[in-house]
Design a protein that fits this description.
44% helix, 383 residues, disordered C terminus, Rossmann fold, globular, eight-stranded mixed β-sheet
């Protein structure tokens, strides 16, 4: 970009405003936007006051009317839900006070790269699908579904290049499920995000004999930087340019990083069980996703795992409970599943003809063919 990026600052404290101006001008490629400038600013940095709800409405209106390209907000408030409200309003960065100069510079440089990308306007060479597999609560079988979908796509369906990413910080188990010993995890990428490209990514990922490339999570708290929404956005963008399918084991988190993955996903498989605690969590989770605006109903697919035909709760009752359609049912087969996990193998190698394997293979077909639904869905429906 030849033209400097214009930044409008709306900060009440003069000392804080001067500090922000100094940081902006020290980065290079930016200029301060004054009230006399008639052109719209590229970036607005806005300090939140007391009436944050009204201010977020104003920001939403400004973005919707294309009055500014992006908005950063800054605040000294520490409320837990403030970040969610900011994300819902469409802001790209939340700068905590007192200002961290490196954090502000990183945010500005990231914005600069986004502006440069928009200015280039070229078609992507490759655009893979992101499939986020997340659970309504812990222990519902999210990792089992994610691992087997990735393996089926790569080896059984020959669908193209496949990546498998584990977002379960500390408790990620994907390497155990596939008997691999990766040398790196996404903590290393977060630490070296400035070097991230397809070559660096492929060198950092472990490769299973099936061809699936695996990026595990850190197995313990080892001082690596967290996978922030910005880091995850860069990681998944690079993966989309490298792989045909990216399967994410999203766990149960709804922090900023997890919300960024959901926002970027082409499909979200929400795994739940036919019991009241799981269904209650499922309903609350669907409401939460709708409230923050990161996932529409067309992209979120409800999957019942460990389905038993004679369950106390019927599928119809479950749908009425969560106010959502059940997309798929995976039958309960504890013995086969645990055998596969303990041996570090995919289900199709342990029991290729089992109902659970067939249903996972059919579910993988829905990823390949797109949004077209089969005439009959899942094990229950075929029986």
């Amino acid at each position: 970009m030849n033209k400097n990026i214009s930044v409008r600052i709306k900060i009440k404290s003069q000392d804080l405003a001067r500090d922000m101006e100094r940081i902006i001008l020290s980065v290079g490629g930016f200029q301060l936007h004054t009230p006399e400038d008639r052109e719209r600013p590229d970036l607005l940095i806005y300090e939140l006051g007391e009436n944050v709800d009204e201010e977020f409405k104003l920001i939403q209106s400004l973005l919707a009317s294309n009055g500014v390209a992006e908005v950063f907000v800054t605040s000294d408030k520490k409320e837990a839900d403030l970040l969610l409200k900011a994300m819902r309003a469409g802001t790209k960065e939340f700068l905590h006070q007192p200002l961290d100069e490196l954090e502000v510079k990183d945010a500005l440089l990231s914005f600069k790269k986004r502006m440069e990308h928009v200015a280039v306007v070229k078609e992507p060479v490759h655009a893979g699908q992101i499939i986020n597999v997340m659970g309504a609560k812990g222990g519902v079988g999210t990792t089992t579904v994610a691992v087997n979908l990735a393996m089926i796509l790569a080896e059984k369906k020959k669908a193209g290049s496949v990546a498998l990413v584990d977002l379960n910080t500390v408790f990620g188990e994907i390497p155990l499920f596939l008997s691999v010993q990766p040398s790196y995890h996404w903590g290393h990428i977060a630490k070296n995000v400035g070097r991230l490209d397809s070559t660096f990514l492929l060198n950092a990922m472990a490769k299973h004999p099936s061809g699936v490339h695996i990026l595990p999570s850190p197995s313990y708290l080892n001082g690596h930087p967290p996978a922030t929404p910005e880091v995850m956005s860069r990681l998944l963008t690079t993966m989309k340019a490298t792989f045909d399918f990216i399967i994410v084991d999203g766990g149960q988190s709804l922090d900023g990083t997890a919300l960024k993955v959901i926002e970027m996903a082409d499909k979200v498989f929400l795994i739940t069980l036919l019991n009241l605690p799981c269904l209650r969590n499922t309903g609350n989770l669907l409401k939460s996703l709708a409230s923050v605006g990161v996932a529409d109903k067309e992209r979120v697919r409800l999957v019942i795992n460990r389905y038993i035909k004679k369950s106390d709760i019927t599928l119809k009752e479950a749908q009425e409970n969560v106010h959502a359609e059940i997309f798929w049912c995976i039958p309960n087969d504890y013995k086969t599943t645990m055998s596969a996990i303990n041996r570090g193998k995919p289900l199709y190698e342990i029991a290729g003809r089992a109902d659970i394997t067939k249903e996972l293979e059919s579910l993988a077909d829905t990823i390949i063919v797109g949004e077209r639904k089969p005439e009959k869905k899942g094990w229950f429906f075929r029986r």
